[in-house]
Amino acid sequence: NAGVTQxxxxxxxxxxxxxxxxxxxxxxxxYMYWYRQDPGMGLxxxxxxxxxxxxxxxxxxxxxxxxxxxxxxxxxxxxxxxPSQTSVYFCASSYGATGTGFEQYFGxxxxxxxx
Amino acid sequence: AxxxxxxxxxxxxxxxxxxxxxxxxxxSVPPYLFWYVQYPNQGLQLLLKYTSAATxxxxxxxFEAEFKKSETSFHLTKPSAHMSDAAEYFCAVxxxxxxxxxxxxxxxxxVTP
Lengths: 115, 113
What we know:
The complex is a heterodimer of chains A (115) and B (113).
Chain A: E1 4-7, E2 10-13, E3 19-25, E4 31-38, E5 42-49, E6 56-57, E7 64-67, E8 73-78, E9 87-94, E10 105-106, E11 110-114
Parallel strand pairs in A: 2-11
Antiparallel strand pairs in A: 1-3, 3-8, 4-5, 4-9, 5-6, 7-8, 9-10, 9-11
Chain B: E1 3-7, E2 10-14, E3 19-26, E4 33-38, E5 44-50, E6 56-58, E7 64-68, E8 73-78, E9 87-94, E10 101-103, E11 107-112
């Protein structure tokens, strides 16, 4: 099992450009998440999905959109990148809700720089 | 609202010494608590989790944590630090939605020879 994979690993964008980050999991997990990690801030939830075709906003959703067309994939889009979106982005998945004790499995991250 | 606070953004210990990383939680419901470790330039890996089955939880790599309701704490310990334990450690609690996690700001562990 590859677990959770993320594409690309690194990306540099200019302000105003758009891009899509791809997350894939091969564990047949129902739930998927996108977090961003900034120095001294821990991880903050951007969007999440509780099943194919569903998405919901997290703590910091502004400037991002997501789609979950297939159960195994969760896409994060930036329509018009801003320097404030420079961060490391992590995708995670879980079999069940954390509120019932299920842990999340994390991908290796995507380091995004917006100039 | 469910949240966690990690005391100490940086902790330094000598190789072979006790590791103690502190986490206090705030929750209006019985919490589910998690400790994750992040090695440089990698994703997060689960160390252990508390799901109310037992207050002393044993995890991977010799780590354990004790849930203390009276102190609202879930501190992470390891009896003897190894150089390979140097990493960032995150405490997390299930968030209000019950689906995602609220993370602490992290504690960077440095192990010196």
